[in-house]
Write a structure and sequence with these properties.
- The structure is a single chain.
- The chain has four helices and three strands, in the order βααββαα.
- The chain has 62 residues and is of the alpha+beta class.
- The N and C termini lie far apart (28 Å).
- 18% of the residues are buried.
- Pfam families: HTH_17.
């Protein structure tokens, strides 16, 4: 079963990007986040959209 959200580090590994690039994608609105206390998690569905694996807004921005 796929997780609902990934950490910043796991997202960076998945996309083969650095943490700074992940934060840039968040600021641009291309990755959706969930805040749990002090943790910032990335919605897995938004990672899949960015990778072109699902239809959505992030594909249009690419």
């Amino acid at each position: 079963m796929e997780p609902i959200a990934l950490s910043i580090n796991d997202t960076a590994k998945t996309l083969s990007l650095g943490r700074t690039s992940i934060y840039l994608l968040i600021r641009e609105g291309r990755l959706e986040t969930i805040k749990l206390g002090r943790r910032t998690l990335i919605k897995t569905v938004s990672v899949r959209r960015l990778m072109g694996l699902e239809q959505g807004v992030a594909n249009d921005a690419a």
